[in-house]
Each structure stands twice: as structure tokens, then as C-alpha cells.
Amino acid sequence: MSNTATLIDNLKAEFQLEGNSALKSIKQTAWNTFETLGFPTVKNEEFKYTNFIPATKSNFTLQAKNSISLADFNSIELVKEEANVLVFVNGIFNTKLSNIISSKEEVYIATLAEALTDSKEEALITQHFAQYSNNISDAFTALSTALAKDGVYIHVAPNKVVSKPIVLYFIADTYTEEVFSQPRNLFIFDKNSQATIVESFTSFGNKVSFNNIVTEITVAKDAIIDYYKIQNENEKAYHVGTTQVNQKGNSVFNAVTVTLNGAIVRNNLNVVLDEEHVEANLFGLFLPSGNTHVDNHTIVDHAKPHCNSNELYKGVLDGKSTGVFNGKIFVRKDAQKTNAFQSNKSILLSDEATINTKPQLEIFADDVKCSHGATSGQLDAESLFYLRSRGLSEKSAKAMLVYAFASDVLSNIKIESLKLNLEHKIAEKLAVN
Amino acid sequence: MSEVNILEEITSSEYKYGFETKIENEAAPMGLSEDIVRYISAKKNEPEWMLAWRLKAYKHWLTLKEPTWQNVHYPKINFQDIIYYSAPVQKKTINSLDEIDPELRATFEKLGISLNEQKRLTGVAVDAVIDSVSIATTYREKLGELGIIFCSMSEAVHDHPELIKKYLGSVVPATDNYYAALNSAVFSDGSFCYIPKGVRSPMELSTYFRINAANTGQFERTLIVAEEGSYVSYLEGCTAPMRDENQLHAAVVEIVAEAKSEVKYSTVQNWYPGDKNGKGGIYNFVTKRGICAGDSAKISWTQVETGSAITWKYPSVILKGDNSVGEFYSVAVTNNMQQADTGTKMIHLGNNTKSRIVSKGISAGRSHNSYRGLVKVSKKAKNARNYSQCDSLLMGDQCGAHTFPYIEVGNSSAQIEHEATTSKIGEDQIFYCNQRGIDTENAVALIVNGYCKEVLNKLPMEFAVEAQKLLAISLEGSVG
After folding, report:
1. Mean pLDDT of A261-285
2. How confident is the model at residue B344 (pLDDT cuts 50, 70, 90)?
3. Residues B268, B233 contacting (CB under 8 angstroms)
4. pLDDT value at residue B305
5. B31 neighbors B58 (Cβ within 8 angstroms)
6. Mind telling me how many Å the CA of A317 is from chain B's nearest CA?
7. CA distance A310 to B313
8. Interval A330-342 mean pLDDT
9. Which of B68, B195, B394, B408 has the most Cβ atoms closer than 10 angstroms to its Cβ?
10. Would residue B406 count as lying in a domain?
């Protein structure tokens, strides 16, 4: 058992200033911020229900090893269609397991470190890196910015459609050691481009892992982006994932976040609707069981008028699991004609499960339509009876109702094999096949 | 009249209830110290145990820090700049209404609550509180026949010490929060109400608070105890004269509802909101909490908040008894530079408990209106049911509406629903009224009254009429 201060010392030893002077300065500021803030405690309103402090007391190694085999990888592959595959083990890029099939003209895909060696991309990275994420009050993001080393860099040029999905696997290898990894991604989608991105998080072994990942996405005018985040790690995996999106005029951003397993999982999804006529659709599904704690924080920031946002998060909680949903909607002054809708529905399957919901609207403009709804309940007794009376076992009747409940979210996944795969995993979780 | 004219006319009109009664005041020296606490206690001729209770609260208050998490902004309060006790000087104890200082009674008449009138026409027993000391309690004898105790807190301390000892601080402990601790240390007076077992109060009980002398903080303490199977409806109304400096009001209201009893608490708050630039006005930092201590008890809070520069309060219900019910109905209107951060807490502890929250916020001018609420279902509370609805109406593009609902569910049998919407008054609605000869100002008042109907309906008759008028007055000048 180690303590939090040791972890911070070890992280400090990792802290090196690399890259050009602009990046150096960003990293130095971020590190100073992290040192001032420290890891957030439950006294921090944003972490009121989620405590990562015990997790920081593990004896983490920051020098990752890699013992993931091709067989291991095949067992967790999510997408069966032809796709660009990038694999990171403990935050380090794995060339052997990765495979990029789209042409260089269609999309520039590289690790962040590699892209920095290309002067054209370096300029773009300098322009966008850490410009959207919260490096002022979010300690985890500041830490990621300061220690950013490896991760995925994607750049789609104007008017290009990336026909094959880009699938990113982040694997924690805890066969021998407790690992702490911090991949850092930057996706730049130029005007009128289109792409589909999948981020998958899994782990092997039965030791503790801590994953602090930040993905920054900038979506230019008229671009259409589908983004999926699938999280399914082991019972000792701590996960803080922050996705920060900045959308320009007429662009569309669709996100589906599915959380299946882990120790404490925190998903931050923040979208800034930065120009007029932007559309953002955020869907989420979390199915924790056992002692898993899942915390979904979303911020939809309507900065400009005439934008639409739509949010639906659903939770099914079993065992002693805890769920948290905190959805903020900001409508800035002058962001008139805004439509912002948010809904959070949860089902508690067991008496020991808990859900804490905090929807939050902050509105500074008057000509808007905003609403949020939150419900918490159990499976409908009448529906259960209906199914039972037709000969279904209690287990499969329940599973069927949960499946129907979840399908509102899953139906938004456009990659067929990914959707089937998830449906299969949910069935497995509910112990019906 | 053009919109600009309406705006000018209204915003320049002064606070309707802004007058100061010239009554000789007996006030404590400015500031807060242990001596002041002793001074207040001595002035009120209190027994030793009461003083000890106050001092304990004061000592705890010294260890606390002023809270800052609320969504309101104001300059730091200097607690040494406040007079903590001020009582109108009186010659002797009063036996009948006629003996009351005529000027004081004129004040009430200006407010439209002539005691005589009320006595004859409405049958409301009024316990009028001016600057914290209860002047006269009407209808006491009539209530006394039924065993109902309705008197000022200072009298209750003398006449019913066993009840006060048992219940005071039982719902809102002296250590509960910063302002509750302050109130416990320096509360000057308030109302005490006790409804014995099985008694249904034949009339609505009412207190009328007014902050009069300059620089006095008003610290009342209200305690309502409803024994098994009893019923009471309690009204509280507030106004304050016009002042430039901000006045602090930190009251505590406690309600204990035993098995099968029902307590209805209605507030109409119309304290001076400050002028259109945000100068002056009351800081209204109040702790209100009720406990459904027995099975099948019911507590219902209804509030219409139109005044105060800053309103910051969360009337709450602890649903401890099985099958108990908590309700919260609120209309909060903010105009000009007013700020409100209000809502409720429903804590479900017993089985089959139900709660219902209906909150309507209306923001105009450059004001900010927040709803902050908590619905908590504890692990052992089976079949809890909650329905919450909080709607916000925005008028003008300078104001803000915010909602911060917290929902914590620890039991799978709970059914919780929460809904919130934000919108503005539709142009088509205004047009419809205009077409029928109703000018825009009146149309807005009409629409707002319709919007708040769900809550206004919960108010007792006389209050509902007053509240409707208040809504219209508060929103004057917000059109455009």
C-alpha cells in the first residue's frame, strides 16, 4: 500500500517538458495547476458522490510492460467490420496489434508523438492542444495535459469522408503490476468532413489499474461525427475519461457512451456548441453490478443561438452498485432560440443499489426551450407478470424488460457488429444467453 | 402607453409598503458578543436553561464559517454592524387590543391587516410581530378553550417550559448551520403553536412579521407542534419598510407533526427587494424544517416569495413516520436585481412515504432565480414516491434561471420523477390577450397568475388574493 503523495511524487518524476515552446508553456501551467489542486476529494462538488482518493493509494507503476498477446486482443475485439485499428497497452502504442487501412489522403492517423514530428501537423496540434479541455479547475485533465506523451492524433482534411470506422483500443495489462496510464487524444475534423470513432477500454489480469484519459475533439463547420465510448474493464479498474468537444456551425456530433464494468468509472462528456445551428446528441447507458460505481458527468454548453441538443442517459443498477448522473446544461446570454433537452432514467434491480442524480439547468437567455427529466424506479410489475404468464422464467422476463429499456440507447449505434456485440455482453451480464 | 413609458413609470414607483413607524425603540448596542446574548436573555427575563441554550449556540456559531456554496452574490455581512435586539417600548402588559400604541395600529392598518377587521371579518387569529416582540395575540382565549396554545415564544418560555425544552431545536438543532446557530443565540421572539391531540384548529393561525427599526436584524423563531390526529393551518406574512442598508433576516421555523396530524404552513413574503439598481433590500436567510415524526403525518409548505433582495431558504420535510406525506409548493418571483436560491429537501426515511414538489420560478429584469432541491430516499425506506416539477419562466434577456435538483435514491422500490422546464411567455398568448383589449402589462400578470395557479390554489383564500396582487406588482415594469 502506497499513499497519494507517493503517487504525486512519482508522477512528478515523469513530468518532462518536451515539444515546442508553446506546448512547453501549456504543460508547465497544467502541472502547476495539478500540484495546486491535487486529486479531488468528495468536498469538491464535482466529486461529491465519487471518491478517487482510495484509488490513488495503490502501488502504481508508471513504466508500463506489455504482455498482451494477439489471442488476448482477439477476445476483446468489438468491431467485426473492416476498420482502422489502433491498440494502446497501458497507454503505449502497440504497432504489432494495430492496423491502419484508410489512405493518407482520407485521414491522417498517427500517435500524438509521431504527429509532432510532422511540421504541418505540429502547427495544428499547437493550435488545438489543451484549448478546449478544462485545465483550470479539473485536476485530472490538468494532470493529463502536463504528462501528455502518447495517444491518438486524427486529422480529417476538408470534405473528406472516412469510410472505415476508426477503432481505438485502450488495454490495461495488469497481469503482473498495478498500472497507471494516461493516453491523450486529439481529433481534428475539418470543414464538411465525416468520420466514426470508437474508443474501447478493457483490461487483463486482476490487479488495479488507473486510466486517466482525455480526448479533445474539434468539429469544424458542416462536419458530421459519430463517437462511441465503450468501457468494460475489470472490477479493480479506476477510470477517469474526459471527452471535450468543440462544435462549429451546422456540425453534428453524436455520442454513445456505454459503461459495463469497473471499480469506479467516471465519464466526463463536455460539448460546447460554439456556433449557430449546431446539433449534439448524447446517449448513455450504464449497467453496473457488484460494487461498481459509475459516474456520468455531462456539460452541454449552448454558447450561440439556434442550436439543438438532446441527451438521454439510462442506467440499470444491480448488486451493490452506485450510479451517478450529473447533467449540466448552460444556455449563455444571447444564445436565443436554443432547444436543449435532457432525460435521465434509472432502474434499480436490487435493494442495495443506489442512484444519485443531479440534472442542472443554468439559463441566461429567455427565448429558449429547455427541459430535463429524471426518473428512478423498478421494472414494471405488470409487464413482468404479462411475460411470466406467457411462460417466460423470471430471469428472462426481467432480462427482456431491461433489454427493451436499454434499446433506446443502443439503437443509436450505427455500427452493426458493435451493437450486436454489446447486446450480447448485456445478455451475458443478465445471465441469459 | 408605450413599453418604455410603462417601464419608466413602474420602475420609478417606490416600494408600496416603505414607511417607517415612529415608535420609541429600546435597542441593544450594536454588534454581537456573549454579553449581547446575555443582554437579550435578561431583557426577556428568561430562565437559566434558556440562556445556557443560547450561549451554547453562540459558542458553536463562533466555530462556523459563513457558507458560500449558494448561487447568490452579496457583499460580506458584518455581523458586528447589526443591532440584535430592538423592542417597541411599552408601558405595561396589554389586556385588550385598544391598549396598543395607536401608531403601531396605524401601521397595521396601512398594511391592510387591521386587527379589529380581521377579528370580525376573517376569523384569523393574528400574532403580530413588529421587530421581534409579539405585541398582541388575538383570539387566544377562544383557542385556549380547545387547548390550543398560540403565543409568543417569550411567553411560551415562561408559561410552557416543558414543551419548549422538549421541542425547541429538536428539528433544527442550534448547531444545524451558520444562520440557524446565529438565530438560536440571539432570537428575539417568535411564535409558538401547540395543537393538542385530536384537535382541529377552527381557524387559520397567522403571524405577521415586519422589520421596522433601521439596522436591526430580525431573528424570529417559530415552533409548531401538532399532536396526534390534530390539524392546523398556519400563515406567515412579511413586509418591511424601505431601507438603504441591507437588513438581515435569519429566522428558524420548526414543525413537529405527530402521528396522523397535518400541518399546513403558508408564507407570503413581500420584504423590501431593494431598488432597481439593487441598492438596499432584505437578506432573507431562513431555515425551515418540519418532521413527520409519527405515522401518516403530513406537512405542507406553500410559499409565495416576491420580496427580499436575496431569498435563500429550503423549507424541508423529514418523512420519518410510515405513510407520511410532505408537500412543497412554491412561487418565487425575482425582478430587477433580486436573487433567489430556494427549493426544498424531502428526506424519505419511513416506508410508503410520499412527497410532491411544485416549484414555479419567474425571473425578470436582471434577476437570478435558482431552484435547489434534494430528494433523498434512504436505504430502508420502502415504496417511497416522489413527484417533482420545477418550471422557470424568463422575462427579458438579462435574467437567469437555474435548477440544481439532487436526487439520491438508495432503495429499489422507490419511484422518483423529476421534471423541469424553462420557457418564456409566448408571443401568441400576449397577442391573444391584446386582441381582446387587455394591455400587455395586464396580459403578463394574467398569464403569470395562470402559470402559478397550481401553487396559489394551495393558499388559504385571503392569502391567495393578496398573493395574486403581489405577483402583478412584483412584475410591473418587466414587460419589454
Report:
1. 95
2. very high
3. no
4. 87
5. no
6. 9
7. 32
8. 91
9. B195
10. no
Instruction: Name the nearest CA neighbour of A211 among A248, A240, A247, A244.
Output: A240
A426, A433 contact by CB (below 8 A): no
As a three-state string, the secondary structure of B207-235 is EEEECCCCCECECEEEEEEECCCCEEEEE
Q: Of A45, A356, A374, which has the smallest distance from its Cβ to B418's Cβ?
A: A374
Interchain contact A368–B (C-beta under 8 A): yes
Per-residue pLDDT, averaged over A342-369, amounts to 90
Segment B179-183 long-range contacts (CB within 8 Å, at least 24 positions apart): B179/B250, B179/B285, B179/B286, B179/B287, B180/B250, B180/B252, B180/B287, B181/B57, B181/B58, B181/B60, B181/B61, B181/B64, B182/B57, B182/B61, B182/B79, B182/B219, B182/B250, B183/B219, B183/B221, B183/B250, B183/B251, B183/B252, B183/B287
Taking an 8 Å cut-off on Cβ atoms, the answer to whether B415 and A376 are in contact is yes
Are B288 and B301 contacting, i.e. CB atoms less than 8 angstroms apart? yes
Grid cell, residue B37, equals 446574548
The C-alpha atoms of residue B416 and residue A376 are separated, in whole angstroms, by 5
Q: Which DSSP symbol is given to A56?
A: G
Lowest mean pLDDT among A188-192, B129-133, B320-324: B129-133
- Model pLDDT for residues A409-421, shown as the tens digit of each residue: 999 999 999 999 9
Angle of CA points B368, B371, B376, to nearest 5°: 160
| Disruptive mutation site among B334, B407, B428 for chain A (greatest number of A CBs within 10 Å) | B407
Ramachandran category for residue A205: left, alpha or beta (phi over 0 → left; psi -120 to 50 → alpha)? left
AA identity, residue A211: N
Residues in chain A closer than 8 A to B421 (CB atoms): 369-371
Q: In terms of residue numbers, what domain contains B190?
A: 17-313
Contact between A372 and B403 using a beta-carbon 8 Å cutoff: yes
Which member of B400, B403, B414 has the closest CB to residue A360? B403
Contacts across the A-B interface (CB distance below 8 Å): 117
- Find out whether B114 and B139 touch, Cβ atoms under 8 Å: no
C-alpha cell at A388: 411470466
Contacting residues of A for B400, CB less than 8 Å apart: 362-364
Residue B411 lies inside a defined structural domain of this protein = no
Mean pLDDT over B149-166 rounds to 88
pLDDT of A201 strictly over 90? yes
B363: nearest CA partner in chain A: A366
Residue A176 burial (10 A CB sphere; 0-12, 13-18, 19+) = exposed
Q: How many CB atoms lie within 10 A of CB B71?
A: 17
Is the reported ipTM for this assembly greater than 0.85? no
Q: What is the mean pLDDT of residues A129-149?
A: 91
A380 shares contact with chain B (CB less than 8 Å): no
Q: How far is Cα A40 from Cα A171, in angstroms, rounded to an integer?
A: 25
CA distance A389 to A358: 38
| Residue B64 placed within a domain | yes
Residue A338: count of CB within 10 angstroms of its CB: 26
What cell does A270 get?
463536455
Asked whether the beta carbons of residue A348 and residue B412 sit closer than 8 angstroms, the reply is: yes
- Chain A residue with minimal CA distance to B364? A366
Least confident of A52-66, B124-138, B294-308, B420-434: B124-138
Pairing of strands A84-89, A92-99: antiparallel
Residue B339 lies in a domain: no
Grid cell digits, residue B142: 377562544
Reduced to 3 states (helix: H, G, I; strand: E, B; else coil), residue B239 is strand
* DSSP assignment string, A298-340: EEEEE-SSS-EEEEEEEEEE-TT-EEEEEEEEEE-TT--SEEE
pTM: 0.83
Which residues of A58-133 form beta strands (DSSP E)? 84-89, 92-99, 108-111
Number of independent structural domains in chain B: 1
CA dist., res. B244 & res. B233, Å (int) = 35
